[in-house]
Write a structure and sequence with these properties.
By secondary structure, this protein is an alpha+beta fold. Helices cover about 40% and strands about 25% of the residues. The strands form 2 sheets. Strands 4-5-6-7 form a 4-stranded mixed beta sheet, sandwiched between helices. A 3-stranded antiparallel beta sheet has the order 1-2-3, covered by helices on one side. Strand 6 (about 85-90), helix 3 and strand 7 (about 110-115) form a beta-alpha-beta unit. The radius of gyration is 15 Å and the shape is globular. The two termini are about 20 Å apart.
Length: about 140
């Protein structure tokens, strides 16, 4: 996709992306240490995705990694979009009820969630990035 940006606006495929003011989110301070441990754990799919999006590598959009929101830790969070990005792998098997409850809570805060599979990250990162771009254009594009 083509990308243009000035100081205030983000564009993907010549479509302006709506940005939101910073949202003050609840955060359990007892989870800060765990979030730091998760960042340092070097989970390969997360690291590979992080390499693609860190330091403005994805349309100069700032991503947070292992962000505490409420009583949960989300893998990636984009403040300007109020978007959570989760990487689903084997750790989610058998946790469908927990994941659904967690997702309901996060959405109740006005956040959106985008899920990526470990398989896609490991097999086709270009498809992962293109899918994320398409999701952002569809859900945040100004018409």
């Amino acid at each position: 996709m083509n990308f243009m940006q000035n100081e205030k606006s983000i564009f993907i495929d010549n479509i302006e992306i709506k940005q939101y003011p910073k949202l003050i989110l609840p955060a359990n301070p007892n989870l800060k240490t765990r979030a730091k441990e998760l960042r340092q754990a070097r989970n390969l799919p997360e690291v590979l995705f992080w390499i693609q999006v860190t330091k403005g590598g994805f349309h100069k959009i700032d991503f947070d990694r292992q962000k505490v929101i409420g009583n949960y830790i989300v893998e990636f969070y984009v403040k300007k979009l109020r978007l959570i990005i989760e990487i689903d792998g084997s750790s989610h098997i058998g946790k469908e009820i927990y994941d659904a409850e967690r997702e309901r809570f996060l959405i109740s805060l006005g956040l959106r969630m985008y899920r990526i599979t470990v398989f896609d990250i490991m097999q086709n990162m270009n498809l992962v990035i293109e899918g994320l771009e398409n999701f952002i254009v569809k859900n945040y594009g100004v018409k």
